[in-house]
Specification:
It is built from two helices and two strands. The protein is mainly alpha-helical and about 70 residues long. The protein has one domain. The longest helix is centred in the last third of the chain and has 28 residues. The model has no long low-confidence stretch (mean pLDDT about 90).
C-alpha cells in the first residue's frame, strides 16, 4: 500500500518469511535433536508445528499475491 508517497509495510510482509524460516528450522533442527534423544512425542509435535508454519507461510504468500 502506498500512503502519501510512503510505502507502508504490513504485518503480512514480516510474518510470511518468519513462518517459513521458523518452520524450516523446526523441521531441520528440532526434529533431529528430539530423535537423537529418543523424545518421540516431542518430535511428532515439532514435525506438526514445523509443517504448519510452512503451510501457513505459503498460504499467506499466495493470498497476498492475489490481494495486491
Amino acid at each position: 500500500m502506498v500512503n502519501g508517497g510512503i510505502t507502508a509495510v504490513s504485518f503480512v510482509t514480516y510474518s510470511i518469511p518468519l513462518l517459513l524460516l521458523t518452520g524450516f528450522l523446526i523441521i531441520h533442527i528440532d526434529i533431529k535433536a528430539y530423535g537423537e534423544k529418543e523424545m518421540y512425542k516431542e518430535q511428532k509435535v515439532s514435525r506438526f508445528l514445523g509443517w504448519t508454519n510452512i503451510v501457513l507461510g505459503f498460504a499467506m504468500f499466495i493470498v497476498s499475491i492475489f490481494l495486491k
